[in-house]
């Protein structure tokens, strides 16, 4: 959350079990074997990048990020060719473990 504006970003992880059709209809999240997770028709990573672009300096905070979440995120950003855009804003991270 950005403290001055109260703006926040919520991200979903790719589930290990199929999403029920009703859950897809409610959340707008669609996961397929052939591509990235989509939220309302847009890749979730692109939604994150668009959100962080609005801030000059970003520090990510996550639980178990160093060993799991950050490597997965970096791999996905690299695969989608948005890693440089990400690191223009993200300067550091905090792991809650």
Largest sheet: 3 strands, antiparallel
- What is the overall pLDDT average? 78
Question: Gap between N and C termini, in Å?
Answer: 19 Å
- The total strand number stands at 5
Shape: globular
Classify the helix fraction into a percent range: 25-40%
* Rg on CA atoms, Å: 14 Å
Strand content: 15-25%
Note the topology.
Layout: H1 21-27, E1 29-30, E2 38-39, E3 42-43, H2 44-52, E4 58-62, H3 65-79, H4 83-89, E5 90-95
Parallel strand pairs: 4-5
Antiparallel strand pairs: 1-2, 2-3
Written account of the structure:
The structure is a single chain. The chain has 97 residues and is of the alpha+beta class. The protein is built from four helices and five strands, in the order αβββαβααβ. Strands 1-2-3 form a three-stranded antiparallel beta sheet. It has a two-stranded parallel sheet with strand order 4-5. Strand 2 and strand 3 form a beta hairpin. The protein is globular and about 40 Å long. It starts with 20 loop residues before the first helix and ends with a strand. The mean pLDDT is 78.
